[in-house]
Write a structure and sequence with these properties.
The chain has two helices and eleven strands, in the order ββββαβαββββββ. By secondary structure, it is mainly β. The strands form three sheets. Strands 1, 2, 3, 4, 5 and 6 form a six-stranded mixed sheet that branches. β8 and β9 form a beta hairpin. The longest helix has 12 residues, at 60-71.
């Protein structure tokens, strides 16, 4: 993967999202037509929002952003930028556990900038040693 931005083209036919059905080793899925209109002979499918929400659309991150905007009443049209997920800084990953004993929950209390905060117990990724 690269950190170069790409674009997918979002097209609607009335109130349906236009996609290209594809098949690979993982099974059927949909993709957005290429920015230049894609293969003119490629089959197209028009999905309603209800259908699109349950469909496998790639790239998934871009599909999620487009479907969320559509559900909120502002569907994007035309080219939509795509950023490689590998270019986004990772989020903190950790394992946690909720411990309840005798009707009480085990929490870790700490203060930051004078305000108290509580967290569930856990271990940050990379802090375990084998």
């Amino acid at each position: 993967m690269t950190a170069e931005p790409h674009a997918v083209t979002v097209r609607f036919d009335a109130d349906k999202l236009v996609l290209e059905p594809r098949y690979d080793d993982e099974g059927p899925h949909y993709v957005f037509p290429d920015g230049d209109g894609g293969d003119p002979g490629a089959p197209r499918a028009a999905l309603s929002l209800a259908e699109a929400v349950h469909a496998r659309i790639r790239p998934a991150g871009t599909a999620e952003r487009i479907l969320r905007a559509w559900a909120e009443g502002t569907p994007p049209r035309g080219p939509v930028g795509l950023e490689d997920p590998a270019a986004v800084p990772p989020v903190r990953v950790r394992a946690g556990a909720i411990v309840i004993r005798a009707g009480a929950m085990l929490l870790i209390r700490f203060e930051e900038d004078g305000a108290p905060y509580y967290e569930i117990t856990g271990v940050r990724a990379g802090s375990l040693r084998g």
